[in-house]
DNA sequence: CTGTTAGCGCGTTCAA
DNA sequence: TTGAACGCGCTAACAG
């Protein structure tokens, strides 16, 4: 009991496969009676076109692949959400391939995409352009989002991690903090390194010393790193975490240690994942409109696919935007009545909207 | 400048395409010199097999499709993570198709999968078995996770939503709460309805009246629903939310209204998404090991695909497990030093591990 | 051990 | 307006 093919339909409708194809694709002239008979047969046989076969014959899969390092945390899930809705809008399917911790794995994943997809979005913070190019046999449209240096000559979208980090640190300085530590992302990760560099630059410019502990972008690593900072007896009054998840981990560690945030120590994260607005104190962070970025990435890739000219080699840069919440001491608890269980904070409920708009 | 095909390789290595295929797939006998020449040609031409063509000829795509209602919230992203790692382990790719709000859309999505995948995992809380069967031309292995009644005759995994809801409400009763409201998921959603029914049953059994407000599983809807409950002047002391995201929304609404949780009102959620352990107060909830469930779902589907017998028609049931945290008043703030900014809670730090183990 | 050939299911010329 | 035949790139029989 196998699935019906276009042949079965043709046979039952007593027409040729070509006619069936014409009817189904609305291409070419078809007489009304023929058309009717075909549709009847399709209905009777529950026929559904075999997209694999169609792809082979049209060299069009209507699918795009997404190469990711891993799927932990909210960043990537938000991104996928954005990609997915855009894909649907443009009539594309999405095939995801994650857990590529090094360049080799990512490279293998890219190769395995040949014949499955019409284009690729690559987020591999460990892979440079050269490495990537080598993985790319056959001219498959690729959009790079590997957060590295502007990989010249390839269409790409990068986040201004350096600039964002500088802004974050400046914000902490603006609130009067001077002993500011940084929890960095994993070494070798291009995004992590840019943010670290931005932190370093901003601190140097202010004539301040730096304190850096390495994490791996997970909440647990942020927790550990913060615990270490406390144990080291550092008298900190500010923390810039390499991403929100680590910042959240640090927040909890501070809380466990009896440190009040933002009174004792102010915290700023990076990414603005949905959870950032939901923790207490809510997290000041550098906002990347993640899902939105995903949408535009997919849209751009579709452009690359459909206008198969190599014209678009621009490097869009996404500039993160400072979102001030409670953790940096500038937003108040949005309580309306007595907030007996919370320490008073500086200002009124001016940031209520911001806290909610996640 | 097109990508090289197996023919190009054969030509360059002066062998037949069959030999190339044999070398690349390690199937059949190949003489060493032949083998070497083929590999050289592959290298020189940067040849990568076209998996679409391979699929057509082997009727094997090594891809599984996942049909989802949407991608909001952490539940689905956690699930996808579990599915993805398991897929990788088993040598499969994952193609996701989401945003299917009604049965028709889901049905169309399922059809569009023919020829792309070897099997399907369907999460469509709106689609019953009959509807699904109609969408399935050709016998494609399908694993159902639509949370509905045990769809007899089809392999499926269901969460014991009813039992979980009863447990959740019982827990609230155990802590001495009696005026317990429920924020339900969207009408028509099978999971939401089971949880609602469980709530109703547990309340009835305790001889208590019910209060239900409808939400849609989003954090915002939970916030709105809680606000409505407050505005209605209900003197509640307990809340069972249909899922964690709505519970988190409610938590914030209570906070804004000056209600203390758990002192004034205890809250229990459902799912145990990662965020549940990170909000404050941390959220008591019914734990579903989401990623783990995804892993086993994929594993089971692979079993269905590879042993193509219709033997497996069981309905695995996942029993949610109560995780007690701060929001139901039984777990303490895990502060070590002075916790001046927090109201005292009932017990010591006995639940510290549970709060952390997310 | 190796090459030839027939499909896999579909779109698409090109004649009729 | 229709149908026969070829090709997409590859695997798998079957000869040699």
Automatic annotation (TrEMBL), chains A, B:
Concerning PROSITE patterns, the annotation shows: HTH_LACI_1 (PS00356), HTH_LACI_2 (PS50932)
Alphabetical keyword list:
DNA-binding, Repressor, Transcription, Transcription regulation
Q: Which SUPFAM superfamilies match?
A: lambda repressor-like DNA-binding domains, Periplasmic binding protein-like I
Provide a Gene Ontology MF annotation, just one: DNA binding
GTP-binding listed as a keyword = no
Q: Does the keyword Nucleotidyltransferase apply?
A: no
**Coiled-coil regions listed:** none
Alphabetized Pfam families for the sequence = LacI (PF00356), Peripla_BP_3 (PF13377)
Q: Which residues form the HTH lacI-type domain?
A: 4-58
Which InterPro entries does the UniProt record give? HTH_LacI, LacI/GalR-like_sensor, Lambda_DNA-bd_dom_sf, Peripla_BP_I
The protein's superkingdom reads: Bacteria
Region described as Disordered? 328-358
Q: What is this protein called?
A: LacI family DNA-binding transcriptional regulator
Which species is this record about?
Brevundimonas vitisensis
């Amino acid at each position: 009991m196998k699935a019906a093919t276009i042949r079965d339909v043709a046979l039952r409708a007593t027409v040729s496969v070509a006619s069936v194809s014409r009817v189904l694709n609305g291409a070419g002239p078809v007489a009304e009676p023929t058309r009717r008979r075909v549709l009847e047969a399709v209905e009777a046989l529950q026929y559904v076109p075999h997209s694999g076969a169609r792809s082979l014959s049209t060299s069009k899969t209507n699918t795009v692949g997404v190469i990711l390092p891993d799927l932990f945390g909210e960043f990537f899930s938000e991104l996928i959400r954005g990609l997915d809705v855009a894909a649907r809008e443009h009539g594309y399917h999405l095939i995801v391939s994650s857990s590529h911790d090094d360049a080799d794995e990512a490279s293998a994943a890219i190769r395995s995409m040949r014949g499955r997809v019409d284009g690729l979005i690559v987020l591999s913070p460990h892979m440079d352009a050269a490495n990537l190019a080598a993985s790319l046999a056959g001219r498959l449209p690729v959009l790079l989002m590997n957060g590295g240096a502007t990989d010249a000559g390839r269409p790409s979208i990068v986040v201004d991690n350096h600039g964002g980090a500088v802004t974050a640190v400046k914000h902490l300085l603006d609130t009067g903090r001077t002993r500011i530590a940084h929890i960095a992302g994993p070494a070798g990760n291009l995004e992590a390194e840019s943010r670290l560099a931005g932190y370093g630059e901003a601190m140097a410019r202010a004539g301040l010393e730096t304190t850096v502990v390495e994490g791996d972008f997970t909440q647990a690593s942020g927790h550990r790193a913060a615990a270490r900072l406390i144990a080291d007896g550092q008298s900190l009054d500010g923390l810039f975490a390499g991403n929100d998840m680590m910042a959240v981990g640090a927040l909890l560690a501070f809380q466990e240690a009896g440190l009040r945030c933002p009174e004792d120590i102010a915290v700023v994260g990076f990414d603005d994942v949905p959870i950032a607005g939901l923790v207490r104190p809510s997290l000041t962070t550098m906002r990347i409109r993640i899902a939105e970025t995903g949408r535009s990435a997919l849209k751009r890739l579709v452009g690359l696919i459909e206008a198969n000219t190599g014209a678009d080699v621009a490097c869009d840069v996404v500039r993160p935007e400072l979102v001030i919440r409670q953790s940096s001491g500038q937003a108040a608890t949005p309580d309306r009545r007595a907030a007996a269980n919370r320490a008073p904070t500086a200002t009124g409920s001016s940031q209520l909207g911001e806290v909610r708009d996640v």
